[in-house]
Every structure is written in structure tokens, then in C-alpha cells.
Amino acid sequence: SGDCRYSLCCRCEEQRQHSEYRQSPEGTSGAARRRNGERGLVSVEYLATAFIAAALIGVLVAVPVSTQPTVTNGFKDAVCKIFGMGCEGGPQGQGPIAESDGEQHEVEPPTCTVSRSKEKTSYSGSGKFFEIDSGWGLQHDVTSDGKHKLRLSTDYGGGIGAEEGGDVGKAKLKAEIRARLGLEMGDTWEVDSAEEAQEFAENLKDYAHYKMLDNVSGNTVGQFFSGLTGGPKPPPEPDSKRKALDISGKGEVQGNAGFKSGKVFDTKLGAKLSLDGNKMYGIETFTDSGDYNIIVDSNAKGELNGQFKAESKAESKAAPQIEGNANAGGQLGGGERTVLGFNDNHELNNVSVRQKFTYGAQGKVSGEAKLPQAGPNGNGKDANNEDLPDYGNRDHSLKGGKIKERWTSLDVDLTKLSKEDREKVELAAVTGRLDNVNLNQLMNKGPSNELEEIIYNNTEASDLAQDTYEIDKSESSDGAKILGVGAEREKENSNYELVDSKYAGDIGEDGLRKVETNADCLK
């Protein structure tokens, strides 16, 4: 029907049957789901997690999951049991978790993500102190067992910021700080072949553009154009759905030591240091079962770039200006991701952790054309001698780099542990102590405390692996401003290629696991 043409949550007769699409690695049942594809981690403190969990209860109550009507109350009950928040009412779980027989079995190499491509487009509008944005993204993962996972996400956000600048001798210094709050919604599908994935991805991209037109027009423009063009068809019911709250911040310091060159351009050499980070809190539900995940993801990145800048020279500050920039430098970053996996009885059955380390080189070129205001005295300043915003400008930039990213991942199936060990790992997970484990050291040097020994020695209970990717990343942006208020479009493309894959194998006579190469992932 026309009413559900663009809804990711409703089923339409024209949709393909859900049975055509297999579940994603993150959408399978129990421990297998958390071992397939992406294995995760994040640093999360107990009180912060409890607070966000309570906030997510509010989100679920306000926006119930239509396909999982029992998740909201069950999630509330799980939060009460784990965090001790003193909730009243709601189911109290159904039955005990099976005990492990304690028997050791041979370690199977974990399934891994062998390639990933990401495409993202965002649109933003900004004034002097504020910025609002919306966008869509498509991620395509290929796993070592031949599965193709596609995730379509949309996000909306807003932020505030300020910048200051001044002269320090002959040099100029500029500082900027910004904060943003956003909401992301994403759906995930899995298909069995590259051909099917490519066709489905093209349909999802078309669908995303029509959906964005509807979002900004009250569900009218997208549906109107869809009626004219006969498409695109809405996708089938996804394997999983995710809602996430994203909190991020960015700081930047830029300095230039200027010198004059010729009669036409001023040229400047300088450096730019930027630091940014974000933290995401989300809940993911699975459409074929009552299982669900609580996700906490944090990232931090620092960039240092040398900068060459050239701008047209004019007698008056109010004259038109042309400016060009070239940057070269590098980045260093890290991140953590934690996934708490609950079964349909609202019991914590799985904990996944991923620690990420990123480093690499990058370059950027950009250009800008400005049409400044003259002001009452013709010098680009107002009556109080303050700089006027440019009357209008246009800018364009291209950025690219070669990045390496290392994921060290841990996956713990609590159902395979004894009751005593399970309680210790569960408590460590929800209080944040599990996040403090150095997974790279645990994998290569062995355990250093009781908690690490529990994880390390239970073969059936854990996957401990390390994957390294080379990433080709490119970005572009186009923007325009009139009297300080403008809009910008940004595009980002990333291609991940797996170049090394290892995992912790069987325990040897020395009590340590032998680090093995995961040949299946490197084929």
C-alpha cells in the first residue's frame, strides 16, 4: 500500500519474501551470532551504562518495537537484574541457564570480516554557532564463510560550537570546539552472493534518497517522485534493527606563520592539530527471535597536518577573494566496542568486546571563493569595528589516505561457563572491568589475573582473535554560505581489505594458547 511504501518496519505485499534473505552474522542465535563477522568492544563505566540503559528503556517505551512487543518489558527486567536499579514489575526471567560440563574441546578458527566497503552522504546547515545535519550510510561486509551483510543507516543530529582567532606576533592562531548530539537508526540484511548483494545495495541507495526527501517534506515529495518513476521498491523486513544515541565532540587548533610571495597571492605555511571523539549507545533487536543486544561504542582520533595556504591579495578586505589549501599529515586513533547479548528470556548470555587501533597518512586539497561584505567604511568591518561575515562563499574539498586498522576481539559465551565463573565475567562486563583487559597482551602473552584466566582457559566460552585491515579512504565536500548561514554536502567512501588474521588456538603444555594464522580468512 502507499502508506507503507517507505517504512523500514512495515511489510508490504510487493516486498520480496523474507525467506530469500538469510540472517546476518550478528542476527543468528546465541554464541554463534557474536562470533561471526564483527567481534566487538568498548570502555563503559557502571553508572554511565546504567544511566544509558534507563534512557533506552524510555526510548523503547516511547517507540515500541512492533515485531518484538515483549522486548521492552523484558529489557527493563534485564536492566533491573543486572544493574540493581530497584525496578518493580515485569517478568523475572524464565528458568536457569544450562551449566557447562567443563570439558575442553578443540578451538575452531573464528569467522571474520574479510572485506568492508562503506559509503556515506550527509547534508548539513549551519550558522555562526549552530549546525544541524542528516544523512544516510550503506555498509557492505563480506565474511569468510561467504556471506554478504548490508546495513542501511540514517542519522539526524545537531550541534553547537564556537571559534576564536587572533595574531601571535606574525603568526595567526585559530581554535574551534564543537559538540554534537545525534540519533542513528539502522537495518541489516544478509544475502548469499555478490551479485545479489550488488543489486540489493543499488536498490537500498535509491530507497535512501527517496526516504530522505520524505523526511524533510512530511512524507510527500519522496512518494510523489516514486509515483512518477515507479520505484524504488521498499526492502524486505530486515534481519535486525538498531537505534542508537551518538554523542560527539571535536576540537581543533590551527596556526600559520605568514610570508608574502609576489604581488597577487599571500602564501602561508602552518600546522593543524585536531582531536575528535564520539560515544554511541544503542539497542539492536532481531526480527526472527526475542534476542537483543545493548551496544556501547566509543572512538577517539587525533590528526596532525602540515598546511600550505594561498589566497588572492586585494587592497580591500571587502574585495572578492580566492583561497586554496593543501594539507599532508597523519592520524592516530583508537576505539572500543562492547556488546551485551540477551536471549529471549532476558538473560545476559554473551559479551563481545573489540579494541581498535588506527594509524596512517592522509592528504587534502581544498578551495574557497569568498564575496565579503564592504561595511559602512568599506573595510569589511561593522560600526563596532568587528569583522563582518562573508556575504557569500563556495567551497570544495577532496581528502584521501591510506589507513591501517587493527581489531583485537574477544567473545565470551556465558552459557558455557560454570555458574561461579559466569557470575564473575558478567559482573566484570557490566561494571566496565572487562573493558580494561588489554586484549592484545592477553592474546600474545597470556592472562595476568583471575578474570583473564577464566576467559583464557575456557575454550568453548571464548573467541580471541586479531584482524588487521588496510583501508583506502576518500572524502569530498561541497558547501555554500550566505551571510554566515550555509549548507554543506559531504561524501565518504572507505574500502577495507584484510591483510592479516590470527586467533588464539589450543592451550599448549606451557599453559599458553598458540597464536595461529587464520588461513580461511586470508584466502
Provide a quick synopsis of the model:
The chain has 523 residues and is α+β, with helices and mostly antiparallel strands.
How does the SSE layout of this entry go?
Blueprint lengths: L29 H6 L10 H17 L8 H13 L29 E14 L3 E14 L4 E21 L2 E21 L2 H22 L5 H9 L10 E22 L3 E22 L5 E21 L8 E22 L5 E24 L20 E22 L5 H13 L7 H7 L4 H8 L4 E21 L2 E23 L5 E5 L6
Antiparallel strand pairs: 1-2, 1-12, 2-3, 3-4, 4-5, 5-6, 6-7, 7-8, 8-9, 9-10, 10-11, 11-12, 12-13
Helix pairs in contact: 2-3, 4-5
Structural class: alpha+beta
Kindly report how far apart the N and C termini lie: 46 Å
The low-pLDDT segments are 1-47, 63-69, 89-102
Number of β-strand runs: 13
- Give the % helix: 10-25%
Give the C-alpha Rg: 26 Å
What is the 3D form? globular
Helix and strand succession? HHHEEEEHHEEEEEEHHHEEE
Q: Kindly state the mean pLDDT as a whole number? A: 77
Number of helices: 8
The neighbouring-strand order within the major sheet is 1-2-3-4-5-6-7-8-9-10-11-12
Major beta sheet, specifics? Answer: 12 strands, antiparallel, barrel
Strand content: over 45%
